[in-house]
Amino acid sequence: MTTSSHIGDRLSVLKNFGTDPGSLSADIYIPKNFPKNGPLVVVLHGSTQSAESYDIGSGWSTLADECGIALLFPGQRKTNNSIGSFNWFKLGDSHRGGGEPLSIRQMIKQVIDDHGIDPSRVFITGMSSGGAMTSVMLATYPEVFAGGAIIAGLPYRSANTLMQAMFRMKGYGSPSDRKLNALVRGASKFSGPWPTISVWHGDSDATVDNSNASSIVRQWQKIHKVEGPPTRVEMVDGYPREVWCDADGRVVIEQYIIGKMGHGTPISAKGAEGLGEEGKYMLEVGISSTRHIADFWGLTRSGEANRSEPKTAA
């Protein structure tokens, strides 16, 4: 078993997880009640954040205690990016088999091996550059993930240079839907079943324009064979949730556009169901993206109930 050393109050450093071509750091959290063959959630922080600060803000380790979920927090180093962003737009860090994606893949394998994770229950989420890197991981290693959640992020390979990345973040020049689809299909030799996709974005995000959210949805619609308008729209904690269901009635894509929210992760820290802590890019808006994403993946009690409902035609 790989050794890990404790940092802070919650997370432990994962050491020795392969060749690490992207030169990333890795922290883990394994709750005391973690069951054999339990699930793993990979959590990617945003620019200027750390694994620990993102965990405190989002409340993932609190939910992990509640539901028995293992967590892996890949971390960027300032030597790779001066503001601590994942390099989702760099050619060397956006393809299978090298750079930051391979480092994250190696971490996942190590945690699966060390802690008896169910390899069919591995999920990934991230915010901002972490959201964009979530898009990279879902496209380049789709066989690894049952689902992914992209918060304030961008579509896979929508940019190949820093200049392009800045334009795409402002909502300019996104590739065509056909190109977006082809980029995912060309990223691996995988043919399905594909990971489910959850998309979250603030409608007042001035850092990453929310047009990127609909581009992410469109990037995955044809792959999931759910083109066109959503199957249904429902209100969740006061915000619209759009869902696209496949032919079996299973929700394969969901999208939340949070009204009047800027750039960051939506949290709800108050009350019995509260998670996380308000802070920079951790925005108190009365809905916990962490809890609802875990619900969507069937990792919470209510999510398990939803997952076990009989399927109906869309």
TrEMBL record:
Q: Name one GO molecular function term.
A: hydrolase activity
Task: Write down any Gene Ontology CC term.
Answer: extracellular region
Which Pfam families would you find in this protein's record?
A: Esterase_PHB
Cited InterPro entries: AB_hydrolase_fold (IPR029058), Esterase_phb (IPR010126), Plant_Biomass_Hydrol_Est (IPR050955)
Q: So which domain of life are we looking at?
A: Bacteria
Q: Keywords in UniProt for this one?
A: Hydrolase, Signal
- Would you tell me the protein name for this molecule? LpqC, poly
Organism of this sequence: Puniceibacterium antarcticum
